[in-house]
Structures are given as C-alpha cells and as structure tokens.
Design goal:
Blueprint (H helix, E strand, L loop, with lengths): L1 H35 L5 E7 L14 E7 L50 E8 L13 E8 L7 E4 L4 E4 L7 E15 L5 H5 L17 E8 L1 H13 L1 E6 L25 H8 L19
Antiparallel strand pairs: 1-2, 3-8, 4-7, 4-9, 5-6, 7-8
C-alpha cells in the first residue's frame, strides 16, 4: 500500500516537471520572437490601375493595392484604397503611378500649369459672390454666366425732322445668359488680401463652417478654345461675369472615361422674359387724387 502511494506521488511530480519544462520553452521562444521583431520592410501601397485624368473622381476600378518595399515607397503614399475613394485628381496621373497626397492637392496655388493640347489658358478674376465663395479648385468644371447692363442696349427714337436720336429712359434692357459651359479649371490663385480685406477681419479657422465676407478675390485659369477666349474677354470688358460650379460626374461615364455632356438649353433672361415666363408682376399704376388749389383772387 505504501509503495503504491510512493509511485503515485512520483508520477504527479514527473507530470508537474514536464509541465514546467514546456512552459519555460514557450516563454523563451516568446522572448526571442519579441526581441527579433523590427520595423516592417514592406507595406501595402495604392497605385493607379489605369490612367486618371485631371478632374476625375476616384473609384475602386481605378486603383490597385500592392505590397511595396519601404525604401521604394513615398512617405505620403496611401496604404488603403478607401483613403482615396471619392477624391478628385488634381493632375493627370499615369497608369502604375504610386498615389500620393500631391496627386489630390487642389488648393489655390499654381506650381505647374499644363494646358491641354489644342486649348489655351485664360484667367478670370472672381470674388466670393461671383466665384462660388472662392472655393473653385483645379480640376473643377465651370460655366460662365454673363449679365449685360441696360446702358449697353440703349433704346432710341428718331426725330424725323432733323434725324436726331433721343435715348428713351425708364426701360430695363438688362440681359443675362449662360454663355459658355463645361470649361475645366487648370489652376487657381488666391491673391493676398488687400488692406481693406484685412480690416474686414481674419479668416475663419480651418474646419470652421462660417466665412468672412471681406471681398476676397480668386484668379481662375480656364482651358478654353480660341473662340471661347474671345467671348470671355468681351464679357470681362462690357459685362458682369460669374463662374458657376458643375458636378464632376457630368463629365465622366460609368467607367470614369471623359465625356462631353450635352449643353443645357437656356433662354437667357430679360425683364420681358421674367414677366412672360416666370410671371413676375408688373406694378400697377396708381392714380393719386391731387387736392384742388384755391384760385387766386
């Protein structure tokens, strides 16, 4: 009976000894693994799966993710496709290029201006009211809205006696029209604020949804055809111009290829059109009774 108890104690001791040995082995291996770990030598990197043109909104099919050596990877490269989805290309991006922050930097400021073949670049100066709050950026598409004041369309009458002309006053001859559509922005500049603008108050902090109406101007460089440049120049001299912002999706098909959307048909606006089409009310003449005057004696 005593011998059997001794054997049982011996077996239990051996079991615990083996268990302790296995634990020590795992502990030593874990310390070795922790000591040998170092910085990663390769990281996932986002590349352009096909050519991406200026102004294109990035979609999944335009991207590929490949493991790249850290020594061959840009410091501001993207590690996940989700980080660039929906961004707008600020330049033409060739197929196979490693995507970086500079490819989507559309902030105001021209470091390199590239005019598409067959086009010319022209500068248009707008402000917060006529330039969509001066948030137009490289790669955007804009339309040109022009208004011509009434004094440019004088209404005259001819005196048949001496053939002289007389300008008829009191007639509203102002006219506005969306003249040019689908022009692409190839660069923007924000001039330094003037003294008056600076006195209007400091600009809101980044992320602040408010804005400071201080008359800030913006220079927008447009890629246009020669005929369009002539129209813009005339409008700059004798009219009031505004740039209106378009959706980038209007200029890409489902596969992200560049397309030319059909132009919007507009009537142009005069006071007569507002009255006839939009039912703007014409003020009614009000007859006022004038008190009779006492006759002098």
């Amino acid at each position: 009976m005593k011998a059997r108890s001794n054997r049982l104690i011996l077996l239990v001791g051996v079991f615990f000894a083996i268990l302790a040995f296995v634990g020590i082995v795992f502990l030593v291996q874990g310390n070795k693994g922790g000591g040998s770990s170092g910085p990663a030598t390769e990281l996932p990197t986002v590349f352009a799966a096909r050519p991406i043109t200026l102004g294109t909104e990035i979609t999944t099919d335009m991207l590929t993710v490949t493991t790249t050596k850290v020594t061959e990877r840009a410091t501001d490269a993207y590690s996940s496709a989700s980080l660039v989805l929906g961004k707008i290309a600020a330049k033409d991006i060739p197929q196979g290029k490693q995507l970086t922050g500079d490819d989507f930097n559309r902030g105001a400021g021209i470091t390199q201006l590239s005019v598409p073949p067959g086009m010319i670049g022209i500068a248009v100066t707008v402000d917060q009211g006529s330039g969509v709050g001066t948030v137009i950026r490289t790669g955007d598409y804009v339309d040109l809205l022009v208004a011509i004041s009434g004094d440019k369309f004088p209404v005259i009458t001819l005196n048949p006696v001496d053939n002289s002309f007389t300008v008829v006053s009191g007639i509203n001859a102002t006219s506005s029209k969306l003249l040019l559509q689908g022009m692409q922005v190839i660069g923007t500049l924000l001039p330094p604020p003037t003294t008056a603008q600076q006195q209007g108050g400091a600009a809101p902090a980044a992320g602040d949804p408010s804005t400071n109406l201080n008359g800030q101007s913006e220079i927008v460089i447009l890629a246009v055809e020669a005929q369009q440049a002539e129209v813009i120049k005339f409008a700059q001299i004798d009219g009031s111009i505004s740039l209106v912002l378009r959706s980038p999706k209007d200029f890409r098909d489902a596969q992200g290829n560049a397309i030319v959307p059909p132009p919007h048909a507009t009537t142009g606006i005069t006071l007569r059109v507002l009255v006839d089409t939009y039912r703007v009310l014409i003020p009614q003449l009000v007859e006022t009774a004038v008190p009779s005057q006492a006759k002098p004696r």
